[in-house]
Write a structure and sequence with these properties.
The chain is α/β, with parallel strands linked by helices and about 350 residues long. About 60% of the residues lie in helices and about 5% in strands.
């Protein structure tokens, strides 16, 4: 190891040691661990809770504990996850008691893309049931907690949702959307195949057509909001965001076959934009201030500027973009890591 590399490692170790907050897992006397975290958060509006590996029991358990404390003691009312928008919205409807799902497993059944165990697991089920019970105890809808997905893999599903929504409120617009989306819908769920074919010019890309659907929905939004207000606004917001997912996902699947940095950046920029939209929508339509907890992998939530992601690979991530968007004073970032070899997957 060179002297420079050794010095850099030592500096990093010093910084980590200064900010490290141990959690004594399974020890009942460790209440002060969590209290110090709650003190550190102050008045932050966005808390990023990372994980060193997807699907690790200990990370999921502690993240759920911390989230419960943030909800009850700090008034957080949104959880945004590294998951697809339509699948997560089905869960959200279950949490608010407005779905036909009989139990949490049914509510999670739309998660069919690998890895299934990332969200369809015991820890998530138990946490969601706690949230549903919490919501049932609240006097108004504004006091309840919502669950959303930030990701953009759901190109096909989100397009179907847009068309189905427009068929209810504007049949002519639905017909136009169906025609505009036909270029990638013909590939069905095989969205990577569409991206590959379009990136090589073997199939026309749908970038302009997807943007047109989004612009038309935004322009006609006043027509789609009915007198019942709250539900209509939420449904419009959900499906307009589906149109945004379609537009960004279409670009993402084509970018997969050109540049890793480009596709990575599109994804994390979309997730950050989703956070902005959630905060703006909640602040505009609720009597309570929007405060969001973000669940995602550490690679998304650390600050890319401080790693080779930013310095060598020209990549950005949610951690960097939220700091730049909302300001350092409004962001708290906690990561989960472990010295246990079994939890070392990245």
């Amino acid at each position: 190891m060179s002297r420079k590399a050794s010095s850099t490692t030592a500096d990093a170790s010093t910084i980590v040691a200064k900010h490290l907050q141990p959690l004594h897992l399974g020890i009942g006397s460790a209440t002060q661990d969590y209290q110090s975290l709650l003190t550190a958060i102050g008045d932050s509006k966005v808390v990023l809770i990372g994980e060193a590996s997807h699907g690790t029991h200990e990370f999921y358990r502690e993240r759920a504990k911390i989230s419960q404390l943030l909800i009850k003691q700090k008034g957080f009312n949104i959880i945004a996850t590294e998951s697809d928008w339509p699948d997560s919205y089905r869960v959200n409807r279950y949490l608010h008691g407005i779905s036909r799902d009989r139990n949490v497993r049914e509510a999670l059944s739309s998660f069919k893309r690998f890895p299934l165990w990332m969200w369809r697991n015991k820890e998530v089920e138990e946490f969601l049931e706690l949230l549903r019970t919490y919501n049932q105890s609240q006097a108004t809808a504004d006091d309840r907690v919502s669950w959303f997905g930030m990701d953009l893999y759901s190109l096909h599903t989100s397009a179907q949702c847009v068309i189905e929504y427009l068929q209810k409120v504007d049949q002519e617009a639905a017909n136009r959307a169906k025609n505009r989306y036909s270029g990638f819908m013909m590939f069905g769920e095989d969205t990577q195949r569409y991206g590959y074919m379009a990136s090589l010019g073997l199939s026309p890309d749908c970038e302009k057509a997807c943007i047109e659907v989004l612009i038309e929905m935004l322009a006609n939004s006043h027509k789609y909001i009915k007198a019942d207000g709250y539900v209509a606004k939420d449904e419009l917001f959900y499906n307009t965001h589906n149109a945004l997912v379609v537009s960004n996902a279409e670009r993402y699947y084509r970018a997969m076959f050109s540049s890793r940095a480009n596709s990575w950046n599109l994804r994390d920029q979309h997730m950050t934009l989703t956070l902005q939209s959630l905060l703006e929508h909640t602040n505009k339509n609720s009597t309570r201030e929007a405060k969001v907890i973000v669940w995602a992998h550490n690679s998304h939530l650390g600050d890319a500027r401080q790693t080779d992601m930013g310095t060598n690979r020209n990549e950005v991530n949610v951690g960097q973009l939220t700091r730049q968007t909302f300001g350092e004073n409004h962001i708290q970032h906690w990561i989960h890591d472990s010295h246990w070899p079994s939890c070392g997957g990245r």
